[in-house]
Amino acid sequence: MDPLAAGVLPICIGRATKIAGHILEQDKIYICEATLGKQTDTDDSAGRIISSVNNVHTSKEEIENILNTFKGDSKQIPPIYSAIRHKGKRLYELARKGEKVVPKARSIKIYNIELLAFYRDYKVLFKAHCSKGTYMRSLCRDMGQHLGYGAYMSFLLRTQTGAFNIENSITLHELQYYVKMNKVNEILHSMDFALADLDYIIIDPSQYNPIIHGRFIELEHIEYISRPSREMIDNKKLMRMYCKEEFMGIGLFEHRNGRNILRTKKLLI
To answer: Which of 127, 114, 183 is nearest to 158 (CA)?
Structure first.
């Protein structure tokens, strides 16, 4: 998360650290504010102003049209002050040393973006649902480029990461209270809650021990699948596995020795 950002940040503990990588891959939703007319070297309010204009001439309609151009699949250039690595070094480390590195454009997807408010002091508040790796700072910078002058991110709130949103999150102050009262278990979410974006399968109880010992499961032992099995087999999609009404972990279908089988990818019990 950006240094000046606030909002939802899932924390994995215990066995749940095994799914931290999957959570990082999930979609995000942000509420972001862009300040028009100025550009900074970090693309946010913490940076040094490198260009500015005295008057900004735009309208709500023009801003909405620009935001709409960001929808869908595209390539985005990350900020030079970011944690992305270049030849083993973080980009922000190189930038602070004055080394000029042009970050490589990365594939991103904006599922939806909407204007929430357009203020007279030329601040734009918008909401974006995007794929992992999308930088709101870059989005604000690109907005300024579309307008013909600079823009930078002046506020950022992450409201959702996967299944985690503002409503089912707590503040650090609240976390300290639960720790002090020894009630942390009351606020923890289950691992399968965090994996709600995956389809799921229910496996015959007779296969409980084979799953635990990492053996593959024949399709005839699968009692239920939340999506047609042919689609899941052909695309090798990850799935939540349940057996004896217990969440077992993550599995995927694959072809092996001419047969279609279910293989456990991560055992989480």
So the answer is: 127
Catalytic residues: 2
Q: Residue 113's pLDDT band (boundaries 50, 70, 90)?
A: very high
Distance CA 181, CA 215 (A): 42
Which is it for the CA torsion 85, 89, 92, 98, positive or negative? negative
Residues in the chain: 269
Q: Is 173 exposed, middle or buried (0-12, 13-18, 19+ CB in 10 A)?
A: exposed
Q: Which residue has the higher pLDDT, 85 or 252?
A: 252
pLDDT tens digits for 37-93?
Answer: 999 989 999 889 999 998 888 999 999 999 999 999 999 998 877 777 767 777 767
Convert the pLDDT of each residue in 118-174 to its tens digit. Answer: 987 789 999 999 999 999 999 999 999 999 889 999 999 999 999 999 998 999 999
Residue 138 phi/psi, 5-degree rounding, is -65, -35
Residue in the block written with tokens 């095994």: 18
The H-assigned helical ranges of the chain are 20-24, 60-69, 91-96, 136-147, 172-180, 191-194, 208-212, 229-235
For the entire predicted model, the pTM comes to 0.88
**199-203 sheet: strands from edge to edge:** 217-218, 259-267, 246-256, 238-243, 199-203, 222-225
Residue that has been written with the tokens 């590195």 in this structure: 101
Cα–Cα distance for residue pair 93/112, rounded to 1 Å = 33
Domains of the chain, first to last? 6-165 (3.30.2350.10), 198-267 (2.30.130)
**How far is residue 257's CA from residue 133's CA, in Å, rounded to a whole number?**
37
